[in-house]
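Internal tracking record. Fields below are filled automatically when a chain is submitted to the structure queue. Please do not edit lines marked as system-generated. If the sequence contains nonstandard residues, flag them in the REMARKS field before resubmitting.
Queue: standard
Priority: normal
Entity type: single polypeptide chain
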Amino acid sequence: MKPEKLEVTNFLGLKKISLTFPPQGVFVITGPNGAGKSSILEAIYFALYGKTMRLPGDVKNTAIINRNARHSTDNPARAEVIFTFSQQGRKYLIRRELERNTKKVDDSTHNAWFFDLDGPHGDVPETGVTKVNKKIEDVLGLNPEVFASTVFLGQGRITDLVEAKPDKRRKIFDSILETHNLSKMQALVRGDLQQVQARVESLTEEYNQLREGPSADELRQQLSDVLSKIEEIRRQLEQFEQMSKRFEEIHQVKSDMEKTQNNINVLKSQIEELRYKAYEDANIKLAKELRVKYIQLEQDEAQFEQLKLQKQGLEENAKRFGEIAEKLSKDIESLHHRLEELGEEQQLEDELSYLEHSLQELNAARSKLDDAFNTLMQCRTLSSEMLTLLAEEKTLKKDVSALDKLLRFLDERRGVFEKYYEAKQEIKKLEDERAKNMEEANKLQRAYQQLNSRMQTVNAEFPNAERDFLVSRIVETLSPQDECPICGNEITELKTVSLPDELLLEFGQLEMQKYHVEQQLKKINEHMAELENRLSELQAVVSKCQEHFTPNLSARIERLSSVGEMNTWIESQGQIYGDRRERLAVVQQQLYARGVQLRAQNERLKSLCSNVEIRSALHENNLQDKLVAMEKNIKMTEQKIAALSKQITDLKEMRQSITVELAKRGGELNKTQESKTETEKALKELNRRIDTILSRITDERSLLKNELLEKGLTMENYESLKNRDVQGADDKLKMLMGSLDQLQNAFNEKQDQYLSLLADVKEEGDLNSVQSQLQSANETYKQLLKESGSIEDAIKHAVEREQRLKEKENQRALLEEELSVLTRLWEDLKADRFPDFYRGEMMNEIVTSASNLLWEMSGGQFNLIFDSDSFRFDVVFDDGLTSDISNLSGGEKVLVALSLAFAISQHFAGSLESIFLDEGLAWLDKENNTKLAQYLQNMENSSMVVGIVTHSEEFAINFQRRLYVNGGTAQWT
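SYSTEM-GENERATED OUTPUT FOLLOWS
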């Protein structure tokens, strides 16, 4: 929950405020005691949950309505709170209203409205206190008790969560962690488990159905048999056809033999070329094997190159360190020379001592002159004050006499004042009543005019409307043979009215309304006449009372509005009279005291005249001039002393600076020489390693050369072959040899065929028999082709069936895995192991964060541990001792409560987007208050909103955003 805007009217200590909260960071609420600081948080809590943390019991208690709210039968006192907030990015508005019952003093009516501003019907509210309360708990996910223990740490309740019993604490955290949702999860898991089981059974049935029938491999074997038969028949057909075309075939076979022989010759040439390449590939493989065998040689050579570079760097460093050492030696020699050139400061110190002695003598002389001058000024000041007091004494005596006369006059006329103000108040009431009557009369006049206008409109449309209306009213009560009320004759026929019924009804209503308006106007006019008579009587009383007032008093009385204000003014005049008398006595006492002081100062001035210089200065009246001249002389001396002191100080600082610089250069020279020595030592060690590696490289190269000689290779061959890739000539050679064998076989077959055809040509055959066999073979060939087509379709279907079977098998494996997970999860949920695991894991995370915060806030004094079985919190002090939190002091409990609150807000930022503290910092000492302020300052740029009610200005000054509350109002500063 993140607050955005709060509007309050007559709620607890607040009269009327409208606040817009910052979108993030920390703000403090300050103000004097009783100003309404806590009422702002109470207003937010009331808006959310329809109750307050301060007043237990029914929220209808009228103590919630501000006691200064006006209440009457016609206009009952009313309190209203409108709160706009966002929850996880969605905006809502709540409005609650309390109205005091006009009959029952201690009862009130509670109404509530809830608006989802981001919903499709944001302007249509949920109404009713029960519905709104349930809606808020659904939106926030927290009941009032949990909200007050985690988000709103109210006044006196900041340690409720810390001091709660373990069972109650467990319920609070269960509500925060929403473990009740795990029961919903249990039902969902059970439903998912049943669905997955049904899907597994369905897939198994489909899988078994797909497994029926021959496999693709079996069908392929059948197809292979059929194709073999087809091939056999095809060969027979070819033989029969060849017999009919034997001469053409003989020539064709001969041509094929020649082409095959040419291909064989080309392949043999290619094979010879590939044999050379295969020899190269063998050498490349050998080079690569040797490279792997002698990989250490390449590593040693690479390391040798790196060591050569390091050696070059070390040689350069050694040279550079030598140059630096030489430069530092020259700098040290120069500094020694400068130190010798500086002179001694003893002569300057002797001169400084002489000037300080002269300054002491001047100060002693100035002290005597200053004493004489101050005494003279004191005499003059006392004389001036006595003159002022004498003038004030004269004025006070005059004021006391006038006020005494006025008070006696006012006391004699108290009865007249009472009659005067009673008449004035009655006149004001009557004038207000007259104004209301005038306003009501004007309204009635306008209504009367509107009625007349409507009747005129009807009369214009129907000229006889009024007559017809009167006739209809008379006819309603009569019937034929009745006596006429006007002429007394017997009625023979009743007149029909042509006016429509709805118009008759409207005309009757207009007549009735007009009559009522006339009666009300008559009553108002009569009442107005009575009011005018009463006003005249009261004006006479006022005029008679004014005859007893003086002109000045009349102006004062006109500015006062009641007898109470008049009595207050009279009392104030009496107070002024007493103050003037008291002041007169004080002035007289001060006059006496000033006289005594003046005589004492005169005596002191006489005693100071024993000094010749002072007496001469007093005689010549230039005491101040001499004092100024002496001050100037003292100032010049002080300036000389300061300049001389600075010169001595500069000389000492320069000597010290050169000495420090000498020490610094000496240290740098020593470090440079040490670095040079270490570099030379490292260079020596590096040369040793280079020699070792070079020796190893020489040995390994010798071994490699010997082995290459054994293989018939040189070092140059090895270097050129080790990085080349194998061309694959051996595989190509094998492939070409296989092709050569095939061609040779084909050539042999062609040759056999050729010889056979030549033999067939020599033999005479039965043509009819050959044609009959050819026809029979053709029919057999067609049947086999048809059979092979059917088998190929069956294979295609079998492959598709096997593919589907594989897919079903994969689906079943995935479902069985999901079924296994759901089964284990269902068993855990059914055994209530998962809620305990979830609660324990989340509580460990919260307590770990809280412990880190507590360690930081307490300055490393203690941290927090948690037992998930007993749901108990303990603290561990820095000395290793452990204590239950119930044994902590008030301030320590506050630190624990704050650390838990901030940790909860960190882990549940989605729902707990704000936190509020109300006057809980009084338990903390100054050091912990400072640490808490530093921690909160780090949250200025966080997404959370943190509000703190405090009366400590020292704590509030740490934050830029402050809400100042006083007199029931509030404003940002």
